[in-house]
Each structure stands twice: as C-alpha cells, then as structure tokens.
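Quick one - first record:
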Amino acid sequence: MVISTDTDGLLSATFLHHHLGWRVSGYYDGATLWLSTLTDKQRERLVWIDLDICRPECPALGHHILTLTGAVPAALGQVCNPNLLAGIGADDFTSKYPFSTVLLLVWLHEATLRRDLTARLLVLHADSSWINYQQYGDNCHSWLQRLPGYDWRWLFSQVGTERFEERMRDQLHSRLEHLGAHHPQSRTSSRHLGLTGGQLRFNPDWDEDIILGLYGLAGTYLKWSPPPAPAITRRVEGRRTMASLESVASEDFPGKLISDGVFSYAIVNRETINFTHLDW
C-alpha cells in the first residue's frame, strides 16, 4: 500500500494489514510521494489507500468528489470511491460521502469492532466522522442507508450528546495530544464542547514516533496488528495547484487533466479543485 499521511490512512493501513496481510510501502500527501525499496519492487501491485489517484495503472481507494456530475468516466475505472458508486458529483456536493476510508473498509469487510469505548472513539475520530454525524445528520443517515447490513446504531450511539464529547475529549483526544497526534485546527467543531476534529497530518521524514504511537493505539484497543513502517529511501516532489473548477471543466473531464499529466486531484467544494502533477 501507499497510504495518506493522516489518521485515516494509518487506521486503514492497520485494518488492511491485519485482515489481508497488506504492507505499507510508501506515503503520499497530495504533493509529495515518499518511497521505499518495496515500492519500486512491487510497483505493479501497489494499491493507493485513502487516496484518489487518477492514473490508469494505480488502483486506489478514496472518498473525495471526483466528477462534475454523477456520470463515472472510464478514466476513473481503477478508483473505488463511494461517491462514484453512488453517482454523486460536484453538482450535488452536499450529498458527498461524510465518513472515513476506514469506516468504508469496516463495512465492506463486515468487520466486527470490539465493544470497547476507546476502539469505538478511535474509529469515529478518523476524518471527524463523529462531528460530521452531528453537523450533517440528514446526509449521514442517508449514507448509512446506502451501507446496509452493519450495526451502525451501536457505533454512532449517543454521538450527539455532551457525554459522548466528554469521553472523546478525556479518553481519546488526551492520548492523541500526548503522542503529538492531535492538531486543534479544524473547519468544524462539535455541538456541545466545541471540540475540533484534530486530524493528524504527519511528515514521514521525522514523525515515525507519531506513526508508531497511533499504530500502538490501534493495536491495543482495536486489536488490529499494525504493519511495519517502511524504510523510506527517496522522495518525489509534485507540483500542487488550486484552481477554479470552472477553469478545468470540460466534456472530457477528468480525461484532459490526466492527459496533461495530473497524478491526483480532489474537488474540494462546488467551485474549487486541487490537483497535483507528479513525475513517477
């Protein structure tokens, strides 16, 4: 796997290593690609996790908005993405998938989570799924209906209450802060205590202790066996651009972006797109 450099990427990697035996071979943050010797040896077998890569040779699992409308172009045939599967594009942005990649994996594999409070908090923390459930309840309930056959009632039990926020603050956020794995900046906050999502953004060059610390939490409370950290040998620097969606929209979207050498992109709101040129 090449994984994203955040909490969701690390938890997704831990899940896939525990259940499928997959190994982490690199990291990508949307601008920089960190590579190990394993990445080059297994290049044709790589899967990109918690990432939306738009190269035909790169199977990827992500959850950003990638299309202008619900139509799915052939150029994204290697991408598994809940918005693509549900036919949701930028024209219906408020209906986008509101949860994390690790929650999608738990549902796909019908994996039973331990009935442990910290395990539950950890999974709900990824990509601020619990705050999204508070703030965008109608859309979240709509998505839970799209993902049938799982015990969502237990997972999201009492998420809207002040008591749940106290537990999130005292039993998880305090641990993450101790590890250096909690960042207070966020665009959204909780309903009662004003808690932020606190999503980790790590740098593989110097944050290995943080990576191992979060793996340790997953191993202790979720009982998922974490993958070994790869030995990074080189970096590939990309060129990340923010542009208006209107400036790149065309009948051939995203084909034109891909033919121009774009490696990854995400539509971040109805008007804006981020994309990265990366030569690898």
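second record:
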Amino acid sequence: MRQYAGNRIGLAVVGGLLLLAGAYAWLRGRGKLPGLPPRSKVLPDRTAEAIAGQPWALWLVALVMMLLALVTLRWLLICLGWGRRGVRSGTGTAMLCVGLKDVEGLTGAVVRVVGDQARLRVAVTCPSSADVGAMAGKLDRDIVGRIRREICDDEIGTIVRLHVRR
C-alpha cells in the first residue's frame, strides 16, 4: 500500500500561498511595500463603501476564514498521523497482505502495535464485491493468529476492523 503524499504536498502549496498572501497584506497595511504610496487604496471605492455599510460582512468573512483554518489544521494533523494509536508493524502488514492476496481490490491493510501491553489493531479495507464472510473467517482462523505469534505473543488482545467500501 502506498502512502498518499498528495495531501502533504497540497497542504504545503496552499499553506505557502496563504503565507505569501498574509505577508503581502501585512506589508501593504503597514505601508512598507516599495513603489506604493503608504495610503494607496486596496479596494475600489464602491466595494469599500459597501463593506463599510454592512459591518457584519467583515465578521462573516472572519468566521469563514477561521472555520477554513480549523478544517485545514485538522487535515494537516490527520495527514501527519497524529491521533493514531500505536506504531505500524511492517512485518504484520506484510503478513496480512500475503494472507489476503486472493482478495480482489484490497485497498488498505494495516497492523499496529498499541500500548505497553502490546495489543494489536488490524485494519482491512475492501470493496463491496469481496466476500466479507469468507474474509472474516480467514482472518479469524489463520491470519490474525500468525500475526500475533510473529509480532508479540499469542495471548495478546487484538482488534480487527473490516471496512467495506461502496
């Protein structure tokens, strides 16, 4: 399974553009841009008058920008992996993928080791066309036991999450 770097690249590009726009607005507001008079207008007269006549419009813009910043921050934290529990196990993930090699369209398989007691979390994502009952039986009978024996101990607790995509 490959990691999607597009989220990180997209966040970096959008963040850089917003940073440049904010620096430009700050410098323009302070009158520190060369080649522009300190009191030059940013908005046309008609737009400035319309905004001055409706003071709630600026509050609405501020609220929308704050919500956009919070959504972007959440996106960044999820992309960085914060909030996820445990450490990925490459060996366990490889064993899981080998055990489920006959499943067509398997889109995600991850094994994580969580906590000091070394519990396992197994996550599998498959299409709706897959035989979920057979897959759950195979996970229960063979695959999870082998992963537990290989990674830690055969008696550790394991949570298996099977997600079916439409």
